[in-house]
Amino acid sequence: MASIKEIALISGFSQSTVSRLLNHDPALSVSDATRNKILATAKKLHYPLPQTDTKKTYQVAVFFALNPQREIEDVYYYDLRRSIVQHAKDEYIDVTFIKDLKNKNLTKFDGAIAVGYFDDDQLMQLHQAFAHILFIDSNPEPEHFSSVQPNLEYATTKAVNLFIKRRLTNIGIVTGQYWDVNTPSHLIVRLDSRLNYFKNIMTDAGLYNDELLFKAHDFTVSSGREIGTEIANQLKTGLALDALFIASDSLAIGVLDALNEINPELAQALSIISINDSPSAAYTQPPLTTFHIDIDYLVRVSFNKLYDMITFHNQSQEITLVTPTLVYRDTFTKND
């Protein structure tokens, strides 16, 4: 357990002030900022506090700019929403999911969380409406917004380097596309950053082949099946393909389903690494090697950062990257 001395050292206040505050000295008079900083420091150091002393309850707006049907089909975003709701309950934070940025009651919120795509006008509205806002999973404007997101560049780099280390040279990628929920379905709003990372690494290695780029409609299992069928057909006509880096488990599950349906040997022959480590990844045929993104940790860090932004009126912007961990299974075993 942390000591009063440690809390004082980290928070920057005297041991006397910290001790009197944590022991509820009625004669102590400190500012809200001082009180909040000491309590926040004590909580981070796991100093035992009554629940009423840990955090002030804040009102937080959550903007989830994702197509509801695609959210259901993409387990990553489904789990992200679930984790936001659960963590808010655990931390006694009031969250309200809002669809309309023109909502007249935004002034009642202390801060906001945003997930998904927002156009330029919407980003301006968010920036103007909230002094404290945090993006989870991406950051559309780092100069205006802070974010907590998985380190996809690390995952992409590690996957490709592992393939190359195994002397696999015909390396492909299966990626998806992001769509704006507020505009016609033909409008693509953002390409997958993993594709840019992949192209850079493969080009530097002299291995990039545009024929091995497979671009799905989105990140769902059904889109993965379509790409899997396309890959199987091209393999029949002599396409050289040793390995696939797949942008999400949902896509990878669809690809494996299609390959197994057409010819199970195709699924066994390819080395595959994906991202997300969804519950289904362990039960594909063969079981899927994938990067585990700890969504609950991602959300917990996000709430802590937003709380600090609100409490200490922090106006500086920063990007916090959470490093995923590779879980080895049969599509790319650790000791091949």
TrEMBL record:
GO terms for molecular function: DNA-binding transcription factor activity; transcription cis-regulatory region binding. Pfam families: LacI, Peripla_BP_3. Residues 2-47 form the HTH lacI-type domain. It comes from the Bacteria. InterPro entries: HTH_LacI, LacI/GalR-like_sensor, Lambda_DNA-bd_dom_sf, Peripla_BP_I. The keyword tRNA processing does not apply. The keyword Transcription applies. Keywords: DNA-binding, Transcription, Transcription regulation. PANTHER family: HTH-TYPE TRANSCRIPTIONAL REGULATOR EBGR, LACI-RELATED TRANSCRIPTIONAL REPRESSOR. This is LacI family transcriptional regulator. It comes from Weissella hellenica.
